[in-house]
Here is the input.
Amino acid sequence: MNSAVSAVDDTDRALVHALQLAPRASWERLAPVLGTRPDTLARRWERLTGAGEAWISGLGLRTGTSAPCMAWVEVMCDAGASPTVGATLVADPQSLGLEHTTGGRDLLAFVAVPDLPALYRYLSFRVQRIPGVVGTRSSMVTAVHYAPDRWRLDQLTPVQIGLLTGRGRRSSAPGAVVAPPLTAMTEEDRPLALALAADGRRSVASLARECGMSESTVRRRLGRLEAGQSLRYSCAMASALSGWPVAATLWAEVPEYDVGECAAVAVGLRETRTCMSVSGRWNVMITARLRTVEGLSRYTSELSRRLPGMRITDSAVALHVRKSEAQVLDERGRRTRTVTPDIWAELVPPAGPERAGPGV
Here is the structure.
């Protein structure tokens, strides 16, 4: 057995689950919940992060109070070109997620940019001009019902979860908590958010030094952005070690008046990682984490049983998740590096006359 796999135990997974619930909690706060010493937790986390087996990232992508313009982009490639195309897209800050997948596309990317004109430029002057790309198809995200930072390992007991959050396990489901008013993300806040992309547990002192702010200013800004949901943290574990190694995506058609119910049902299933309304030939996209490939059939059957009005139009299994929430991953899902998600970086079109690429 791979030594990296055998070194991870249930205590490590419990630590990851605790950090999913309280990403910046001190070791002193977490220790009594997990029944161990603060220095032991610190050593475990250092080992996990050093091996790329777990990590916490911070994402703050708003422009003022406006959410980023997000889209799922299917990329079709020449035979044999998808590894090279994938390596190119992984390096883009606008491409937050990327996977090689089964089905009618070679690559599936999750893209975020500030606005619609930026999405047009990114698709037309970047993605469609990469050698080996023969076509793209885009689905605009129109609503996020469930985001990946809310998916949990479920390693802790309800009592432990309550000690960390004061709520139940799936309390982030729709209707459980009234969301606070959104806080604007200013240009002055961006360096702070970007500095947290690789390590969401960075100390206030190190953030202050890097961003040229006082520690009190950093604390005040972090508190404001976190309370207003403009800065969100995501704690993840390498898929091969988490117990949920298979990633799948579903495309579905749902009557518009049933979308809310669809989202509630999807969120109620343990495997659901994201649920979004999208534009295009289908109006809902769902991603899931599964224990086995065979679990996809059971998952889709359960969705269809609970939602007779939903028609699943396509499904795909990820052959290799190369990037997730700005983190570059190896074939076992371990983090190798972070691409800072500076989605506001200006794209420079290649020299020469503008030409139309394959269909958006």
